[in-house]
Amino acid sequence: MPPAAESESSVREAESSPSETARGLLELTRPGNVAAAGVLTFTGAFVADGLLAPAAIVAAVAATIFATAAGNAVNDYFDREIDRINRPSRPIPRGAVSERGALWFSVALFAGAVVSAAVLPVTAIAIAVVNLVALLAYTELFKGLPGVGNVVVAYLTGSTFLFGAAAVDGAFETTVLVLFALSAMATFAREVAKDVEDVAGDREEGLRTLPIVVGERRSLTLGVAVLAVAVASSVVPFLVGGFGAAYLALVLPADSVMLWGAARAFSDPSAGQSRLKQGMLLATAAFIAGRITASGGVPA
Ligand SMILES: CC(C)=CCC/C(C)=C/CC/C(C)=C/CC/C(C)=C/COC[C@H](O)COP(=O)(O)O
Ligand SMILES: CC(C)=CCC/C(C)=C/CC/C(C)=C/CC/C(C)=C/COP(=O)(O)OP(=O)(O)O
Ligand SMILES: [Mg+2]
Questions:
Q1: Where does this protein act, in terms of pathway (predicted)?
Q2: Which ligand lies nearest to the CA atom of residue 110 in the structure?
């Protein structure tokens, strides 16, 4: 950043009070996503092994919370210039958190993830290492490659189920793999819609995202196709995974909301991606309800 802009940025930093900085740091983590990711990891452990290994579940959820918060914070650090266009109200562009503060905050969060994951079985540690590297490399290596960044975020989101199951030394049984696939496919669809929403800033920064390379409509059509596969597959946990009727009662509305969001994204990408997220969160509740009411009961 040229000296003049650096001094301007530091002036803005000087204006943010301690409470604004604290609020900004919390906002950097995207606490809603962090909580949701923790729920996904818990669900993976719960599906694989019930509540038989509470210490491992706590460590895995903690590692996921730290890692997701770290990934969001470091993403905003790397995206600080793009976000001056795309998301000027984010904590760094608005001056609530300094660039240096955001970077060191994310380093501390990554350290928390490493310490939490270190006590887990080797398969879980391996997943955590892959994920932490992917989170660090996302913006610099993957985000600007057409579709690759979307696939990485989709994998990271779905991997929470695998991580939870691995933490309790559970096998990657069919249901865990299905939940991985469902959440990864739905996340891919939403990431495409988000890229369509961000075309202006991404193009200015020279990013070659899917909408910029193949066009917005074609990208959204791909996203809808992937989501349709996920929606069609969402009955599998009920049909073969033993998930109870409560799962169906929640996942079918969730499917509808996600399809609605994907369709809406063609005319209003921002509204569409938000609607997609609502459906995904409802689907998360379906996973929990489905496991609680599973035919095999909950091992405890
Ligand atoms: C068909 C079917 C049943 C799909 C399942 C969908 C499902 C359960 C998806 C999981 C979604 C979820 C609750 C993810 C946890 C939060 C998270 C880590 C999301 C990844 O976010 C990346 C995104 O780019 C962040 O952007 P924003 O949300 O705008 O801050
Ligand atoms: C299980 C373990 C150890 C880790 C999983 C960590 C998880 C769940 C990651 C989920 C995905 C995530 C939080 C990615 C961080 C990077 C991120 C926010 C990507 C999307 O960002 P952009 O493409 O820049 O879009 P916006 O910043 O505009 O949202
Ligand atoms: Mg970003």
A1: Membrane lipid metabolism; glycerophospholipid metabolism
A2: 2
